[in-house]
Structure to design on (697 residues):
DNA sequence: GTGATTATCGCCCTCTGCTGGCTCGTT
DNA sequence: AAACGAGCCAGCAGAGGGCGATAATCAC
């Protein structure tokens, strides 16, 4: 706290008037502004007080009160102008704790309380919670107290410079009151309490008016950085209130009534006052823009001429002002960062950057969006955020003209969409390559993060703590023939297959032909037998080579022959493989392709199937997979049909079964027709053409 | 009083990371 | 066909760097 000079005549007391509250931003937390809120209740008239009992009868209080902004945007600083009240010291009994109570017109009291020898307290305001004490010594010192209670002493020591002709005496109020030790710092005091702390700055007022300007600052409050300045200055007021206050015979102090500016130099003060006016006498002859100072004009003209006299020795940058060059060198070359964060290792070149950084520690968000609850820590983020409300997308891709709200988003877009050498990010834990780093992070979080909960395999008892490991493990169960025969090497994927297989070891044949008593292991085999030997309408299939026309009772024999003949049988299968590689864009096509896959797998599996059952049915396995599925055939149905075939059930058996089944679908018929190699006998909907069937069967 | 220096404000930028919708492949 | 998973992608915000401009202060 800068000491200020005051001039208080001996044997004079002063009364307080509240001169002005400095308007501030409305973003301050209310708890910081208790003092101000209290003051808000005070109207100018409230501050007009009259001496009550105990006050000298011959004293006349001259009260000048200026309006207090009645907003919640309280100031952390208050200017109290003390005007001398000319009553004599004899009129005041300097007894301990005597009071000079000043009754204000509307009932609000300003209590002038004598704290002790040499001290005068001024208790202000109607509420005891606000106790702005100003202790004034009879010996010309002026002090302040926020709290004077012994046990919760919150007053802040403030050196009050006494602008005396003979001496400037800085006396700590607390020291004077004997309540705190000499030299105790106000910061230490601040740490001792969480209650708002205030201190008083005293500034010498106009000599003739004997005004003393007190600035009460809330020590717990934050700095006034980034707070809006006072409202637009009233130029006339500024001119009329050139408070070139000075102390009696001492160093003059010039105080701006528009803002808090003070200066001991007239030139500085005058230069400052020009900031409150629109006076810009210096004209640029190139663009007719005007400036306040010659220096500003010169810098501006340099922007026209491109003159940048301050050149960096380490790079080709040049600047208009020397300050810019110094700062540039700190950023780019010397890396000198004088502003260091006390809470982390951050350091910055500029103080404003440190202030901005500190908000990341404090969580302060002074910049509130007017349309939503968002608040940002700096102006740019708020401005950027406002685009979400306006829909503005100022950044456009020069290639595809897509627009973006942020330049970074556009940059990523161009890099990923329009660049050739797109960077890829390899997952360190697996082979996955991901285009964006952030997505790689998501990948690692989802798949490679340790899971405290046990991730159990759905097929076995294995347990994992990483999702990726679980997935990889479960893939090992895919196509796994989990049912293994205890008596041989046979294995299959379905339990019913194993049941049928076990009968080959036990010899069990539960299905008996009613006509000849022949027994079979599977019902389907019995059905085939019955139709072949006991059904008069049964016509055996003859497979003919498409090249030479030779007939065969078994498809496998025909196929083996046709390969030697150069038949296109094998060729058609190869062309189907090519189609499998095409991208499936439509559901029908996908299903068709799936059916082809299943058919191909079924073919392979059939080659390793139950030869005994096949022999028993007298139909070779390969006859069951003559070619590809047509588009539209249900893959699942094909798989089911294939599985039955795998058990030794022939296509004819299946068709019979389906023919007698109410649940028979077109796709099932079509699948069976495919398996029989006679898709031409189905209609467009997969239905069996009864006539053809009858002719064949 | 004036120029130089320093401090401050404000703006824009980049880098970074998270989020959720979308798309596509798999189940 | 639907559910689900995973990568792609744009939107959005946090944090900090850099600089233009101007006011305040210092030195002469």
């Amino acid at each position: 706290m800068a000491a200020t000079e005051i001039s208080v005549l001996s044997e004079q007391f002063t009364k307080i008037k509240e001169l002005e509250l400095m308007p501030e931003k409305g973003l301050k937390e209310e708890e910081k502004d208790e003092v101000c809120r209290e003051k808000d209740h005070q109207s100018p008239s409230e501050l007009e007080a009259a001496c009550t009992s105990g006050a000298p009868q011959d004293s006349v209080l001259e009260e000048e009160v200026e309006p207090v902004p009645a907003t919640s945007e309280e100031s952390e600083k208050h200017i109290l102008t003390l005007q001398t009240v000319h009553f004599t010291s004899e009129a005041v009994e300097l007894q301990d704790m005597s009071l000079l109570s000043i009754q204000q017109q509307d009932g609000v009291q300003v209590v002038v309380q004598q704290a002790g020898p040499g001290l005068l307290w001024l208790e202000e305001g109607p509420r005891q919670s606000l106790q702005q004490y100003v202790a004034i010594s009879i010996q010309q010192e002026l002090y302040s107290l926020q709290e004077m209670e012994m046990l919760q002493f919150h007053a802040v020591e403030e050196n009050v410079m006494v602008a005396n002709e003979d001496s400037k005496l800085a006396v700590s109020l607390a020291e004077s009151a004997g309540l705190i030790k000499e030299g105790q710092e106000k910061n230490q005091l601040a740490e001792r309490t969480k209650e708002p702390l205030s201190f008083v700055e005293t500034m010498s007022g106009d000599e003739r008016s004997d005004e003393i300007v007190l600035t009460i600052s809330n020590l717990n409050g934050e700095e006034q950085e980034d707070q809006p300045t006072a409202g637009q200055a009233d130029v006339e007021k500024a001119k009329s209130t050139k408070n070139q206050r000075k102390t009696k015979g001492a160093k003059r102090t010039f105080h701006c009534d528009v803002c808090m500016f003070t200066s001991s130099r007239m030139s500085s003060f005058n230069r400052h006052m020009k900031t409150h006016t629109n006076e810009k006498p210096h004209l640029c002859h190139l663009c007719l823009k005007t400036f306040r100072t010659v220096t500003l004009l010169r810098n501006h003209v340099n922007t026209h001429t491109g003159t940048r006299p301050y050149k960096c020795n380490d790079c080709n940058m040049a600047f208009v002002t020397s300050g810019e060059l110094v700062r540039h060198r700190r950023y780019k070359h010397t890396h000198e960062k004088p502003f260091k964060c006390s809470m982390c290792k951050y350091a910055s070149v500029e103080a404003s950057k440190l202030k901005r950084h500190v908000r990341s520690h404090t969580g302060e968000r002074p910049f509130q969006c007017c349309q939503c609850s968002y608040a940002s820590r700096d102006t740019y983020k708020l401005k950027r955020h406002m685009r979400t409300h306006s829909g503005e997308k100022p950044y456009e891709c020069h290639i595809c003209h897509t627009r973006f709200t942020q330049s970074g988003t556009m940059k990523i877009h161009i890099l990923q969409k329009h660049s050739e050498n797109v960077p890829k990010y390899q997952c360190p834990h697996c082979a996955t390559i991901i285009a964006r780093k952030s997505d790689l992070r998501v990948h690692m979080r989802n798949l490679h993060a340790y899971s405290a909960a046990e991730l159990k395999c759905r097929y076995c008892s294995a347990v994992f703590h990483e999702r990726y490991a679980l997935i990889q493990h479960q893939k090992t169960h895919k196509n796994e023939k989990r049912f293994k025969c205890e008596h041989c090497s046979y294995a299959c994927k379905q339990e019913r297959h194993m049941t049928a297989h076990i009968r080959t070891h036990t010899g069990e044949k539960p299905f008996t032909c009613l006509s000849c008593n022949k027994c079979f292991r599977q019902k389907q085999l019995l059905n085939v037998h019955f139709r072949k030997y006991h059904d008069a309408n049964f016509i055996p299939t003859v497979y003919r080579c498409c090249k030479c026309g030779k007939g065969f009772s078994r498809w496998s024999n025909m196929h083996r022959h046709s390969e030697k003949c150069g038949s296109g049988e094998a060729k058609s299968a190869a062309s189907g493989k090519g189609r499998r590689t095409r991208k499936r864009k439509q559901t029908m096509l996908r299903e068709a392709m799936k059916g082809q896959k299943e058919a191909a797998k079924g073919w392979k599996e059939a080659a390793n199937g139950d030869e005994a059952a096949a022999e028993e049915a007298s139909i070779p396995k390969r006859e069951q997979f003559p070619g590809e599925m047509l588009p539209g055939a249900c893959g699942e149905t094909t798989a089911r049909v294939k599985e039955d075939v795998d058990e030794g059930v022939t296509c004819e058996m299946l068709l019979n079964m389906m023919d007698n089944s109410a649940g028979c679908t077109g796709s099932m018929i079509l699948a069976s027709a495919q398996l029989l190699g006679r898709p031409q006998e189905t209609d467009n909907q997969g239905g069996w053409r009864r006539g053809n069937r009858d002719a064949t069967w």
In short: Residues 229-279 of chain A form one domain. The CA atoms of residues 166 and 192 of chain A lie 36 Å apart. Residues 587-607 of chain A form the longest helix (21 residues). Chain A has a mean pLDDT of 52.
